[in-house]
Amino acid sequence: MDFEICIDSVEAAIIASKYGAKRVELCASLNEGGLTPSMAMIESCVKTSTAEVYVMIRPSSGGFVYTDKELLIMKNDIKAVKGIGAHGVVFGILDEKGEVDIKRNMFLMESAKKFGLGSTFHRAIDVCSDPVNGIEAIVKLGFDRVLTSGQQDKAINGINMLLKMMATANQRIEVMAGSGVSSLNALELARTGINALHFTARIPINENLQLDMGQKYTVDEEKIKAIIGKF
Question: What is the 3-state secondary structure (H, E, C) of the chain?
Answer without folding.
Answer: CEEEEEECCHHHHHHHHHCCCCEEEECECHHHCCECCCHHHHHHHHHHCCCEEEEECCCCCCCCCCCHHHHHHHHHHHHHHHHCCCCEEEECCECCCCCECHHHHHHHHHHHHHCCCEEEECHHHHHCCCHHHHHHHHHHHCCCEEEECCCCCCHHHHHHHHHHHHHHHCCCCEEEEECCCCCCCHHHHHCCCCCEEEEECEEEECCCCCCCCCCEEEECHHHHHHHHHCC
